[in-house]
């Protein structure tokens, strides 16, 4: 499951305390831009997708669920 | 002609290079004539110094202390490792590319060994140490207050890293303990060497990669139409120096960020966001919308992400160049950062 894999990434960075799929990542201070860059690179590698610039938005990166949505759409486009 | 990259770190052998004699065999060694002056001069220029020596670690470090030189050398590697491994370890610890490294040793076999594994490292025969300061690769274009303090800043950074490791990845909790103080001031003429140095040294955290000559920079300082800010950061471990820049141009309707950059040393400190919060409130105060030029350079994706996650959206694109518009509301500075706007 995409969400689970993303959560694992947060965990590997020591950032999983109190983190749910729908936690607001900006409010919780979970995301800064270096972290976001590392995550984008990780997602692209782990899921074999290319995340488009237009998908990098506050809304899309607000929760683990919304990030998973970006990944799933990118996968759908590639396979479809 | 390929551009000659300036050396950022020189790694010294000790026996029969920095001093005459072999510590293990002779016990007493004597510094080579003029070596201290060479060290001091390179240090003043902001070139970092380290050690790769095959010796008993405690003996060698003690000898350096006895000569009063211990503090000149960052992360010295003394032991029985291959010197190529020692040089690579120093590069890792200082977070610098090996192409910015030089190595000096009296033994051809050691120089060959380093060169074999790291062909990008420049190697020098120990006999040539007096000549080093005169070589172009040891002559940075600028020697600023920040270059002179570079070694101390690295030492402070090591303390921060130790502290950060204790927080095991909880970066906000770590940042709150730093007691960071950011000062944003209009660029003054005395800052221009450092401003140019920053524009040349900064690739990743640079929104456009634009460089300006001295005349243009002076023009921005005098211009009523420009906001030209330099950011200086301190925390409880010391000063990071002048580490960020923002240049923005006013029109009738908009404030447009032409250049936003910050030193890699403050990559995880939220400085880019703080500068953008300041610019957003300046634009709002003047009833202007906030726009930003962005040029993809292949290395600055992180800056694009910084803008987008701050609430900027792309409104126009032409290949690598695009125009962003701030669509968010007023924002506060990160709570772990005290921001002061200087005059």
Give an account of the 3D structure.
The complex is a heterodimer of chains A (80) and B (343). Chain A has 80 residues and is mainly α. Chain A has a single domain (2-10, 21-79), classed as ACP-like (Non-ribosomal Peptide Synthetase Peptidyl Carrier Protein, Chain A, Orthogonal Bundle). Chain A has three helices and no strands. In chain A, helix 1 crosses helix 3 (64-79). The longest helix of chain A is centred in the last third of the chain and has 16 residues, at 64-79. Chain B folds into two domains: 9-138, Rossmann fold (3-Layer(aba) Sandwich); 149-341, Aminopeptidase, CATH 3.40.630. Helices cover 35% and strands 27% of the residues of chain B. In chain B, helix 4 crosses helix 5 (108-117). The interface between A and B is medium-sized, with 20 and 23 residues.
**Which CATH architecture of the largest domain in chain B would you pick?**
3-Layer(aba) Sandwich
Question: Radius of gyration of chain B over alpha carbons?
Answer: 23 Å
Succession of helices and strands of chain B: EEHEHEHEHEHEHHHEHHEEEHEHEEE
Estimate what percentage of residues of chain A fall within beta strands.
under 5%
Structural class of chain A: mainly alpha
């Amino acid at each position: 499951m995409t969400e689970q894999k993303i959560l694992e990434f947060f965990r590997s960075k020591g950032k999983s305390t109190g983190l749910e799929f729908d936690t607001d990542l900006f409010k919780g201070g979970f995301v800064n831009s270096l972290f976001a860059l590392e995550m984008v690179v990780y997602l692209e590698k782990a899921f074999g997708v290319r995340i488009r610039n237009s998908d990098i938005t506050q809304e899309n990166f607000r929760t683990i669920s919304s990030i998973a949505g970006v990944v799933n759409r990118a996968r759908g486009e590639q396979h479809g | 002609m390929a551009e000659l990259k300036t050396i950022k770190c020189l790694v010294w052998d000790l026996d029969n290079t920095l001093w005459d004699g072999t510590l293990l065999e002779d016990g007493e060694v004597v510094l080579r004539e003029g070596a201290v002056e060479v060290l001091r001069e390179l240090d003043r220029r902001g070139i970092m110094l380290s050690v790769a020596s095959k010796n008993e670690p405690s003996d060698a470090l003690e000898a350096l202390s006895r000569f009063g030189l211990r503090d000149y050398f960052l992360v010295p590697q003394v032991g029985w490792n291959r010197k190529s491994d020692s040089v690579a370890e120093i590069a890792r610890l200082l977070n610098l590319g090996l192409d910015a490294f030089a190595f000096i040793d009296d033994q051809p076999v050691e120089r060959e060994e380093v060169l074999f594994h790291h062909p990008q490292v420049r190697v020098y025969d120990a006999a040539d140490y007096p000549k080093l300061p005169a070589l172009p690769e040891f002559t940075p274009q600028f020697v600023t207050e920040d270059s002179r303090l570079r070694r101390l800043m690295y030492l402070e950074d090591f303390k921060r890293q130790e502290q950060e490791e204790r927080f095991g990845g909880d970066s906000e909790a770590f940042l709150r303990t730093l007691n960071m103080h950011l000062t944003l001031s209009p660029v003054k003429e005395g800052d221009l060497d450092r401003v140019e140095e920053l524009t040349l040294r900064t690739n990743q955290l640079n929104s456009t990669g634009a460089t300006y000559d001295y005349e243009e920079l002076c023009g921005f300082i005098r211009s009523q139409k420009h906001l030209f800010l330099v950011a200086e950061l301190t925390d409880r471990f010391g000063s990071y120096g002048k580490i960020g820049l923002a240049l923005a141009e006013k029109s009738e309707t908009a404030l447009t960020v032409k250049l936003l950059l910050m030193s890699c040393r403050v990559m995880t400190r939220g400085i880019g966001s703080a500068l953008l919060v300041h610019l957003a409130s300046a634009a709002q105060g003047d009833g202007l919308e906030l726009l930003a030029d962005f040029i993809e350079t292949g290395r600055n994706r992180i800056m694009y992400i910084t803008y987008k996650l701050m609430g900027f959206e792309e409104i126009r694109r032409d290949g690598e160049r695009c125009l962003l518009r701030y669509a968010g509301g007023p924002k506060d500075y990160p709570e772990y950062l005290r921001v002061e706007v200087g005059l």
